[in-house]
Design brief:
mainly alpha, Arc Repressor Mutant, subunit A, three-stranded antiparallel β-sheet, about 55% helix
């Protein structure tokens, strides 16, 4: 029997385990800042997607919109996040990080760098670069499968077009 059929040697299991252990390591570090895992994840995603809608953020964080709304309510009350009306849709708001939250983000970046360095300890720089290149290629392969190219024969695709709001940060 080959090692690829043993769950511990499965690519998906291995990637999931490494990601889970990195989250746990980072979570231990940010607890000193008084942030929950949900709060640091929301701040981290918002830092990369300022002005995003709650629906977009819920999708990226893989949580239900109502769960995220409650989290954002608490973060707004703490002064870390601001809801700003969306000028193009009166029903929607855009989310922004406040100046009060920015020092937390900087501390989170330092703690993330420590976690990353511990994770990659013992890997020489060329091996680290190769690892990132491989992971990027895998990510691109999977994204391409979510958005396969339209048939070249001029026929319409068999599935409905994908909503692109994810890529627009809205």
């Amino acid at each position: 029997m080959s090692n690829t059929h043993i769950p511990e040697r499965s690519l998906g299991f291995m990637i999931n385990d490494v990601a889970r252990l990195m989250r746990r390591n980072f979570n231990r570090r940010v607890q000193k800042l008084g942030l929950s895992q949900s709060q640091w994840k929301a701040l981290s995603h918002l830092a990369r997607n300022e002005g995003a809608s709650q629906a977009f953020l819920a999708d990226v964080m893989e949580v239900q919109p109502i769960t995220l709304a409650r989290l954002i309510d608490r973060m707004v009350a703490a002064g870390w996040v601001e809801r700003v009306p969306n000028p193009s849709d009166r029903r929607a708001v855009r989310l922004y990080i406040t100046d009060k939250a920015r020092p937390f983000l900087e501390k989170m970046r330092v703690l993330a760098a420590e976690t990353r360095e511990e994770t990659l300890q013992g890997l020489a720089p060329p091996l680290r670069e190769q690892l990132f290149a491989i992971l990027e290629k895998m990510k691109c392969n999977l994204i391409a499968q979510e958005n396969p190219p339209a048939p070249s024969s001029g026929q319409a695709p068999e599935r409905a077009p994908k909503n692109n709001t994810k890529n627009q940060g809205q």
